[in-house]
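Could you show me some protein's one-letter sequence and the numbers that encode its backbone in two labelled lines?

___
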Amino acid sequence: MRMLNELLKDQISAGWIGFEFLFPSKRTRQHPNGLRAKYSDRVGFTLVELLVVIAIIGVLVSLLLPAVQAAREAARRMSCGNNLKQLGLALHNYESAFKRFPSSAVTRGGSSTQPWSGQSFLLPYVEGDTIFRRIDFSIGYHHPENRLQFPPYGVAATRVPVLLCPSEVNDRPRLNATTNVPEHYPLNYAMSVGEYLVWNPATRQDGGGAFAPNSRFAAAHFVDGLSNTIGFAEVKAFTPRFHDAATLPLAPPTSPQTASVSHVGGVWSATSGHTEWVCGRAIHTGFTTTFTPQTPFLYRHSDGKTYDIDVSGIREGTDQTSITSAIITSRSYHTGLVHGLFMDGSVRPVSSSVQLNIWRALGTRSGGEVLIGDVD
């Protein structure tokens, strides 16, 4: 029995030594040779090593991130250009069907207080025929009959994907201030409505651009050539703006600095410009070539903030005597450029550094200017 007990003790001792060898810990243990020493064997990383690995990963990510962002922006730019190409095809399909291009706005009849936009008339040609057929264009977009078709606020709150740039950071509806329910949806592709003058209802003079209120322009009206006339360009949704500014000068300003006080007396909003794709008024669905693309037009408001703004005079269709002039600048989230759709259907990037005389010449359909220089 004594020999058995001794044997069990030897086995237990041997097992304990094996366990310690496989899973060492910081303790004093007996070496096989009988010497006693401290083991410092460990499994895993030290804190310093872990921090070094994390730092290396951070450096790699910082090196890769700009390349990833550049690739994403290139994809968004391509998608943006494709949207404009679709609008170009829609324009020419419309012109083929009606022998003219759409108006920028229809201000006659019952819809004069809510003029329909040229973009809305292109719906059947951009996969929006189902929506188009449910609209009564003889009345306003917020008329009860039209609202009934698209409750609660009508078709104005419908998102039209082809009208939105993938780089737009505010791709969201504009909410009604009282009900907090979507009332309008913005857009990023605006119609060229002139250099500064947009519409004189008394004389029916327009701004000389590719589009105008109540216009019936055919291809023959573009004396400068369809390829030399810009039709659409990018704008930013929810642009700060003044509208119904009664103090705009008759002549276009030569720079943002000389126009800095031109907006006094208008109705201010920090967020509502280019938020109504259905509305034919230039402050929402148009742009002017007063200033070159991406030119800051800065205004310091009484709230202490500085805004990059647009300004419109009395809006089109408000009455039959007030002249509408506007400073509505083409802007985008693409660095150094905006995309432009020309009336021949081509899409070209227009540099922010384009010369002002070239930009204004591109904005006229029959100005007779000789274009010298590049747009990109």
About this structure: Confidence is low (pLDDT under 50) at residues 14-29. The helical segments are 2-22, 47-98, 118-121, 129-133, 144-149, 282-285, 356-362. Residues 2-38 form one domain.
